[in-house]
User: Fold this.
Amino acid sequence: MRTTIDINDATLAELRDIARHSGESLRATVERSLELGLSQMSRAPQRKKIRVRPHRLGLKSAYYGISLNQLYDRIESEPPSA
Assistant:
């Protein structure tokens, strides 16, 4: 079957290099690359769900309920402790 697709210039250059070094045609290289890619996609690993547990950071109560940017600004504005 004949079809037309747009291929990124860098990808096309890499495919041409592979074809040149392997001695096969560009068409055969593209077909092999697609087959390998499709087989990898069909075997995509199932991602395990992870559980994230919150931990107390020991922050002052004045810092609870504010964004990280606000927290950073407040910490930067405090005088250094001795």
